[in-house]
Amino acid sequence: MEMDPSFAWSHSHISFMYRMKGDHDASVAERALAADLLDMPDEARKLRDTYRTSGWNAYVRELLQQNWGVLGRSGTRVASFQAELGDNEQAIASLIDAAAKG
Q1: Residues 79, 100, 10, CA angle at the centre, nearest 5°?
Q2: What helix, strand, coil percent values describe the chain, rounded to 5?
Q3: What does the pLDDT look like over 3-37, one tens digit per residue?
C-alpha cells in the first residue's frame, strides 16, 4: 500500500483482515475505498450507507448482492460471509459448489 495506495486489491484484503479482527468500521471503510478506486462509486456509497443505517449484518448481505468485479467472487469468500450471517447450510453448499468447479 505504501508503493501504490490506489491499488484496490490491497484495500480489499485489508478490509478482510479488519473483518476478521472484528473492526467493522475499518473493514467497511477499506472495502468502500476499494470500490471507489475501481470507479464504482454507487457500490461504495451503498456499502457505507447500508452499514451506517442498518448495521453489520445488513452490510454483509449487501456485499453478497454486489458485483465484485475484479475484486473476485470466490466460493470460499461467499461462504465465509454466509457463515458469518449464520446461514451455515448455504455456506456449506457454496463450498461444495466451489470445490466442484475446481
Answers
A1: 45
A2: 75, 0, 25
A3: 888 898 899 889 999 999 999 999 999 999 999 99
